[in-house]
Specification:
1,3-beta-glucan synthase; transmembrane helix; alpha/beta; globular
Length: 1252
């Protein structure tokens, strides 16, 4: 691009013969880079040369010789394409003789050079052929492939299908086209003309020494101008990737129907179709059931349409209610909200309608009553409302049906039944004819509703002494209907039935005490209670009494998010659910106040309440055990008969001790699901009486199917005569064994398996070793690994069998998945603003980031849990974790590397999510980011990245690079760009070139002051404390300073040299600034003389000598010869003042010179400190290490003053404290949390602490 911009500036200039000939020189650059690659391969593989076979060594040598040959051939042939070459081409031609020009020779060399690349491009277009060649063991093919790949199983046949290849190729073609276009027109082309102008007019006036004094083209200026642009050119691809991945990820997410249901309003609008989607996604269909002759004879006859709808409604009700009750158990909703969200557990066959959750129907009935009462015999508004809001119609129909059902259930007398029947017949006729509001008096309908609500409240109490009130309410309701709502001609024979004969004849004749009052002896009360009856009464009471809108139910934001995501996921593409008996079995492995204390039960509840709100093992175990509960329900729905299904899962669960069906459901759940918690230290904790062991045992008691794996360390007699005992290690698996059923606290653990190990299993990184020792105790075909900072949700556990079906699908048309990626929700985002930032950062990566990595880029690896592994695949290919020290610091991603290199396939699925906690404090976030960065640095040294880089095609390699080590390399280039730009500007300004160019040519925290004082006191104590053995870095500056230098002790000679070279950059400031002093201009005529710079070093060494003299004097004279020491300090002070006065009076030193000297000498002192730290052993030998430490302490004190001064100033203003607190806890403020009370604590507690 520089060539094109230099020779015209438009892309069409490439068709010019001269420009095209210059562009062809890029193949020479490619040959040089190829030679560098061959050299690096030999350098990095040098230590392994002894274990290499002769064929591998020969391959390395031949590659080096071939690359070196092309570096010679291409420049030579290129030189003979020019008639009058310049530069290097002219030199080459002069060496070899000025022969005839032969451009075709260079073209031929290029064709031969590119022949292997052309063949690779052809194979790139046909990935199935490339997979065949790489995976083949035919000797002829292996001989042909010897040059391109080693004889290893790893990295063979890992290419994707043709469609996947097309997708990620187009992604990078579009990205690179956009990047090159913008770079050409914005970065490169605008600099070409200024560069030509700068090189055309050389500048000879320098205010200090020029790096290139004999240059004719201002080469220093050109370098300062182009260096930042070149770095930006290599860095901005990462920016373009971020933009393209965001765009593609958003489009792909919309295509996958993500975010269609984000709010409760959206949920209500789609809830009517939710039961259908529920049954389609989570309920096995007939097509998934077993086939064959046995299935034909054992299959039940197909139910009618109504019966099928009833079964679907019943299944939806069971699962929906299980989700809502889990919300209540997690304290996300209260009892009232739970009642509004639940649907009846069992189907009421007498109603013959689908009963929606009350939160959809809330306030509909009171509104309908008011509209009917004010209608004036016109039903237009009510009819319009019923048509626009379907739930309005559902609420009216259900209330009327439930009203009829309850009245008919309570009334026993035949006479009363006849009266009620006739009344309902009249009402039904008006409803059928559409004349209900027009012909009946609706003004008294609210009065009837009030009477019925009173009746429902008495039915909820169900006390025998309320029978009289129930009878009166029946009579009052009858009177309202017959006297106020209906007219006499509409009643017909109803009034006669009421009085036992002719209404007119007996009116006023029969004495009152002789008349039989209706309902006096015909009411069934109290009612025999059942779950179905209780639910019906409670539900109808809610529908009639809840007047405010339930738009905010549930009020908890987390409950809203979960229920919305779950509903949205049902409309996304996912595999059909198999029956539990046919699903893939899987395992989950986890890597591991005073009044209340008087009551153990309350204390236990308090501990659980706190544990469920932190990142604890208890929270994780509860979430993962939802799998078993979900499988029990799903097995029940698979095997339940119609009667059991209509009765409901809860009724069967309550009778689980006597229910064979529930016994079978639990057995199947145990067969399909295992949960193993890997606790390395459990054995040690148990023997030492650690409370943690008791808590783990309590968890095993609470969840009997939970298993705990740990490493048991015991002492046994040694077989070695020199040792009496030796430590023996076992990998053990235990479960809870309740010795006393009525006393779960007396539970003990029972060892299931115990495997003797050859030694201590924890040799590498703790987390992966913890996984590796416990994986043998898992079973099933799939394995989900979980961290202790994660949780799960009941509604998501219901989709697990759908997710496992992904293992049976070829997602790229080539291979089955080996790792199923699942999205995460970061639940710690509301703690503080920092936690919110970390949550958003993590959420963007685990959603849109991993979505693009999986499809279309096909480079998603394993970035942490809760991914699900093909257990058998990974057990036979090295396991799920690599645990080598340091190199596998980020152990998660190596599982993805391992899977991809061994022909695995990693996918990502967003219809299921798992909760995860993240760091919430600044220090925690910083340490986490440092761990990720360090782990990425170690990945660059791993053989996995080396093999992926060699075996991926070009575009997939770009995807791998920019999503792993490339991100951090680009970040490093960004930092370099800033340094290069600033040092370039420094070079231009200090040398005077910037001025010459401009004139010669026309180029266009906390918070309170008391807290600041306390922090200053603590910092002063920390900076003053002496270090030493056993002193923590948090207690002493010296200990912290020594710890910061630990990497230098292990860096070797090359590291020491690099540190010294990097420290030299701080001397540039002194070199530039001393030539701008006024005193320099007055002392010497030649202001550019090197003597000026040398004299500045003399001044620095004098200052350091004075400091050393004072330090030695303090140590030797301050105790016994205090007067002498004071005299020495006085003489030094007087001498210093005298020198300053002389410099001001004679050479004319100004105040500005003083500040310039400080700015010049401060970086120099810091550079000397860095050099001294790099060569610490030598400095210690000559006895200057104490002075270096004192100098470093002085710099730290100066920085402390610079930091504390503005903070202390701002602390005087109260609004700064309020603003800081508001910003830090913004999420909590938006939820109404009173932060000041939390930060301040209880007054009594603070007073007690102050006394202590």
């Amino acid at each position: 691009m520089i060539i094109i911009a230099w020779n015209g500036g438009t892309p069409s200039d490439i068709f010019d013969a001269g420009v095209f000939k210059q562009v062809l020189s890029i193949f020479i650059t490619a040959a040089i880079l190829k030679l560098g690659q061959a050299l690096l391969d030999i350098v990095f593989g040098w230590k392994a040369r002894k274990s290499m076979s002769f064929a591998v060594k020969l391959r390395y040598v031949l590659k080096l010789v071939s690359a070196a040959a092309w570096v010679v051939i291409l420049p030579v042939t290129y030189a003979y394409t020019w008639e009058n070459p310049t530069g290097l081409a002219r030199t080459i031609k002069s060496w070899l003789g000025d022969g005839q020009n032969q451009p075709s020779l260079y073209i031929l060399a290029i064709v031969i050079y590119l022949a292997p690349n052309i063949l690779a491009s052809m194979l790139f277009l046909f990935p199935f052929l490339r997979r065949f060649l790489e995976s083949s063991n035919v000797k002829v093919i292996t001989f042909m492939m010897w040059w391109s790949q080693p004889r290893l199983f790893v990295g063979r046949g890992m290419h994707e299908g043709a469609f996947s290849l097309f997708k990620y190729t187009m992604f990078w073609v579009l990205l690179l086209a956009m990047k090159l276009t913008v770079s050409f027109y914005i970065e490169i082309k605008p600099l070409v003309q200024p560069t030509k102008d700068i090189m055309r007019v050389p500048i000879r006036t320098f205010q200090w020494h020029e790096f290139f004094p004999h240059g004719t083209n201002n080469i220093g200026v050109v370098i300062a101008l182009w260096a930042p642009i070149i770095l930006v050119y290599f860095m901005d691809t990462q920016i373009w990737y971020a933009l393209f991945s965001t765009l593609i990820g958003g489009i792909y997410g919309a295509y996958r129907r993500l975010g269609e249901i984000r709010t409760l309003g959206m949920l209500r609008s789609r809830f009517e179709s939710l039961p259908v989607a529920f049954n389609e996604r989570l309920i096995p269909s007939d097509t998934n059931r077993s086939k064959g002759l046995r299935a034909v004879f054992s299959r039940k006859p197909k139910a009618s349409g109504d019966e099928q709808e009833d079964e679907k409604a019943a299944r939806f009700a069971q699962m929906w209610n299980l989700i809502i009750t889990s919300f209540r158990e997690e304290d996300l909703i209260d009892n009232r909200e739970m009642d509004l969200l639940l649907v009846p557990y069992c189907k009421d066959r007498e109603l013959n309608i689908f009963q929606w959750p009350p939160f959809l129907l809330a306030s509909k009935i009171p509104i309908a009553l008011d509209m009917a009462a004010d209608s004036g015999g016109k039903d237009r508004d009510l009819t319009k409302r019923m048509r626009s809001d379907p739930y309005f119609s559902y609420a009216i129909r259900e209330c009327y049906a439930s009203f009829k059902n309850i009245i008919n259930t309570l009334v026993l007398g035949q006479r009363e039944k006849d009266v009620i029947k006739e009344i309902f017949d009249v009402v039904d006729k008006h409803i059928a004819d559409g004349t209900f509001i027009r012909d009946l008096n609706m003004r008294s309908l609210p009065a009837l509703s009030k009477k019925f609500v009173d009746l429902l409240e008495l039915l909820q109490k169900n006390k025998e002494e309320d029978l009289g009130q129930v009878v009166i309410l029946f009579q009052d309701m009858l009177e309202v209907v017959t006297r106020d709502i209906m007219e006499e001609e509409q009643l017909g024979g109803v009034l006669e039935s009421i009085h036992g004969g002719s209404y007119r004849r007996h009116e006023g004749i029969t004495p009152l005490d002789q008349q039989d009052q209706l309902f006096a002896k015909a009411i069934k009360f109290p009612v025999e209670e059942s779950n179905a009856w209780t639910e019906k009464i409670k539900r109808l009471h809610l529908l009639l009494t809840v007047k405010e809108s339930a738009m905010d139910v549930p009020t908890n934001l987390d409950a809203r998010r979960r229920i919305s995501f779950f509903a949205n996921s049902l409309f996304m593409e996912m595999p059909n659910a198999p029956r539990v008996r046919n699903m893939l079995p899987f395992s989950v492995e986890r890597k591991t106040e005073e009044e209340l204390r008087e009551d153990e039960e309350l204390e236990e509840e308090l501990r659980l309440w706190a544990s469920y709100r932190g990142q604890t093992l208890t929270r994780t175990v509860r979430g993962m055990m939802y799998y078993r509960k979900a499988l029990e329900l799903q097995a029940f729905l698979d095997m339940a008969k119609d009667d059991d299904l209509m009765e409901g899962y809860r009724a069967t669960e309550l009778m689980s001790a006597d229910s064979k069906l529930m016994t079978r459901c639990k057995a199947i759940a145990d067969l399909k699901f295992t949960y193993v918690v890997s606790c390395q230290q459990y054995g040690i904790q148990k023997r030492s009486g650690d409370p943690c062991a008791h808590d783990i045992l309590r968890l095993m008691t609470t969840y009997p199917s939970l298993r705990v794996a740990y490493i048991d360390e015991v002492e046994a007699p040694s077989q070695d005569r020199n040792k009496k005992v030796e430590k023996v290690y076992y990998s053990a698996l235990v479960k809870a064994s309740v010795t006393k059923p009525n006393e779960p606290g007396q539970s003990l653990d029972q060892v299931i398996y115990k495997i003797k190990l050859p030694g201590n299993a924890i040799l590498g990184e703790g987390k992966p070793e913890n996984q590796n020792h416990a994986i043998i105790f898992t079973r099933g075909e799939c394995l989900q690994t979980i961290d202790m900072n994660q949780e799960h949700y009941m509604e998501e556990a219901l989709k697990m069998r759908n997710l496992l079906e992904e293992f049976r699908k070829k997602h790229d048309g080539v291979r089955y998945p080996s790792i199923l990626g699942v999205r995460e929700h970061i639940f710690t985002g509301s703690v503080s603003s920092l936690a919110w930032f970390m949550s958003n950062q993590e959420t963007s990566f685990v959603t849109i980031g991993q979505r693009v990595l999986a499809n279309p880029l096909r480079v998603r690896f394993h970035y942490g849990h809760p991914d699900i592994f093909d257990r058998l695949f990974h057990l036979t290919r090295g396991g799920v974790s690599k645990a080598s020290k340091i190199i596998n610091l980020s152990e998660d991603i190596f599982a993805g590397f391992n899977s991809t290199l061994r022909e695995g396939n990693v996918t990502h699925h967003e219809y299921m999510q798992v909760g995860k906690g993240r760091d919430v404090g600044l220090n925690q976030i910083s340490l986490f980011e440092a761990k990720i960065a360090n782990g990425n640095g170690e990945q660059t040294l791993s053989r996995d990245i080396y093999r992926l880089g060699h075996r991926f095609d070009f575009f997939r390699m770009l995807s791998c690079y920019y999503t792993t080590i490339g991100f951090y390399f680009s970040t490093m280039i960004t930092v370099w760009t800033v340094y290069v730009f600033l040092y370039g500007r420094l070079y231009l300004v200090l040398s005077g070139l910037d001025e010459a160019l401009a004139t010669g040519r026309k180029f266009v925290h906390n918070s309170s002051l008391q807290k600041i004082v306390d922090d200053w006191t603590d910092w002063n104590k920390w900076i003053s404390n002496r270090g030493g053995i056993g002193v923590a870095p948090e207690k002493s500056w010296e200990s912290w300073w020594d710890k910061e230098q630990e990497p230098l002790r292990h860096s070797g000679k090359r590291g020491t040299i690099v540190e010294i070279l990097l420290a030299l950059r701080f001397f540039i400031y002194q070199y530039g600034l001393v030539y701008h002093l006024n005193i320099t201009k007055n002392i010497t005529k030649d202001t550019r003389s090197v003597l000026v710079y040398c004299f500045s070093w003399v001044v620095i060494f004098v200052i350091l000598l004075v400091m050393k003299t004072v330090s030695v004097g303090r140590r030797k004279f301050s105790a016994e010869f205090q007067l002498v020491f004071r005299l020495i300090k006085g003489l030094i002070f007087i001498t210093f003042i005298s020198i300053v006065v002389i410099l001001i009076a004679i050479p004319g030193m100004t105040v500005l010179d003083t500040f310039v000297c400080i700015l010049a000498f401060m970086p120099t002192g810091w550079g000397l400190l860095l050099i001294a730290q790099a060569i610490r052993p030598a400095v210690q030998k000559i006895g200057l290490w104490g002075s270096i430490k004192a100098l470093a302490r002085g710099y730290e004190i100066l920085m402390g003053l610079l930091l504390f001064t503005p903070i202390a100033f701002l602390a005087w203003f109260p609004f700064v404290s309020e603003f800081q607190t508001r910003m830090l806890f913004n999420q909590a403020f938006s939820r109404g949390l009173q932060i000041s009370r939390i930060l301040g604590g209880h007054k009594k507690d603070r007073a007690t602490r102050n006394k202590e």
